[in-house]
Amino acid sequence: MLSNLRTLLRHRTLIQTLVVRDLKARYRGSILGFFWSFANPLLLLMVYTFVFSVVLPARFPGVDENYALFLFCGLLPWIWLSSSLTEAANSLLAGGNLIKKVLFPAEVLPIVAVAANMVHFFLALPILFLALLLFASSTPAFSELLWLPVVVLVQFVLTLGFALIFAAMTVHFRDIKDILANLLTLWFFATPILYPTALVSERGPSIANFPPLGKILIDLNPFTHLAISYQEILFYDGPYGHWKWLLLLAGVSVVLFIGAYGLFDRLRDTFAEEV
Amino acid sequence: MSDPAITIRNVSKRYRRYAHRRQFSTLKSALLTGSLTSALNPDEVFLAVSELSLAVPKGISLGVIGRNGSGKSTLLKLIAGITKPTTGTIKVAGRVSALIELGAGFHPEISGRENVFINGVMLGLSKREITRRFDEIVEFAELEEFIDAPVKTYSSGMYMRLGFAVAVNVNPDVLLVDEVLAVGDEGFSLKCLDKFSEFKRRGKTIVLVTHGLGMVEHFCDEAIWIDGGKLKSKGDPRRVVHSYTSDVQKREEHVLSSADQKLQAAVSGPTQSEPEHSADQSVMRESPPEDMFRAAQGRWGSGPVRIDRVVLERNGKVTHIFQSGDQLAIKLSVSTERPVKDFVFGISIFNPDGICCYGTNTDIEDFLPLEMIGEGQVVFVVENLDLVEGTYKIDVAAHTRQGVQYDYHRLLYTFRVKSGIKDTGIFRPRHRWTFSPNVRFA
Question: Which of B104, B176, B209, B438 has the fewest CB atoms in 10 Å of its CB?
């Protein structure tokens, strides 16, 4: 297990090379090329702004007319997670040639999927910052921004864990690809991205001394804490107060990653035959 | 030198056989049957490699031969570490490079140059090593002009050449090659062979899976023959190749004779019931033989003379495989319902292109028919079958001197001619070469 994790470090050149290849290949042949990495989030922001300020004006307490910006703070990291998982689930099947015909460390493929989407997330961040500078009532404080790398790191480890599990399982059960697509939609709506946390955390019956059911569910959802962290750091004024949850999630993510890697490792020898 | 480069001990590889109902195991079925983690069902597995032990000494080139599906490639993948043995152990000393699929992992959208780097990293080279060898790789692949074009624009030959060039430049201690020399043109194949020879000179170990038996004989120091996942023979390449080819011939004989039998069962008895055939017949009666030669295989005729059985023999032994120059006897068992006074027997031999190599009949050769009663035999013997290698088909016929068909068998019988010499054409005339003393050969 540990030695495997060490070889993973040895593969970083390979991972880096493949991420660069993925990014290069993605926009090869399109006229705007790499510019799409900026254009895509910009267009997305424009669409959401239009929908939620003209078509269905959304009013949530504490969010007001900057709803599109609020949404965007949670949506960009969500896109990173969901495209990573979708791609990772398919990565071993798509890279079947490598696994069947070359001595190739299989875990590299889902990791590359997560890393490549992280780069896209990074490329979209400047658009978000620019929008925050232009339209937000206040810009995020520097002391808050220091937390941002931590949030990103936690999300990276968490996504890796899920990616390894889905990648390994999809090889054996092709159904997961379809289940995953729907699961991600459900997960998206169950996470306070479209709406502020307060909206659901007070809902549902509360039994005895327990908090309301809505709060329990939303606290159990790992992405809640990431979304809230992004929103608090980037969108809301005031100090970042969610850090305890974030550190807890960091611990959970590390455990998940190690467990996922163990599972992946156990199934590794079956990939070459099942892909 | 004492330690072998590859040590294989009692290795078996079990694969799941995909039975029809489990072609895709689904999450649902796994949950329903509770087989999520259950062991493999014994009747759904087969052994691709079974109880195989082998030691490959350092610095030799080992040829691996065997029929399709005999487990050669599985063995190679096991040595490469791509799949793990179900039981047994494999030890390989040093760095392995496997030429199993060339250019696996090339991305079609990006340039050859970038793909060389990525492929090199995948195969375990560092960026610096690749930079150092880059020119050599490109030159070897003969792709100087195209190296900056996306790989999707490459021809399959170019693709393979680039893949090969990267893989051999990994500088392995053990090189595993799986039937990759079939790619590329003659010139490139020779270059690959040169590269292999260079590896050999440098004391590297090579394992070569191939159907090119000549290559095994000329290039390899040792050969193994694998059949059904088991080691059937091992040792001197010439000896192993010889025992393999004689086994192949036996199987071929079996295949040809059963195919012949099936064909003859399909066309039973001289009938005119099938319109296609009677149409042929009417054409045949009036037209020159060129038209007849276009007819597909079949049997037609109006009797009363019938050809009941046709057997091919060499020196009295029934066979379908002949060496060029062997004796060929075509034995017709014939019968007639009533005595006839007008009969001709004919035979034609066709090569795979449908060209009539030779055709004759008793009438042309001035046998004047007197009478035929009951059952009999007609034997046509070619003392020296001087045909080049290939698969040939035979027409046999009984008809009147005017050409009215009694019984015509069109392309129903097959035989194969084998030859060590790969000459071309149809007929091999008996020949010799002479040279003046100043024209010398080794």
Answer: B438
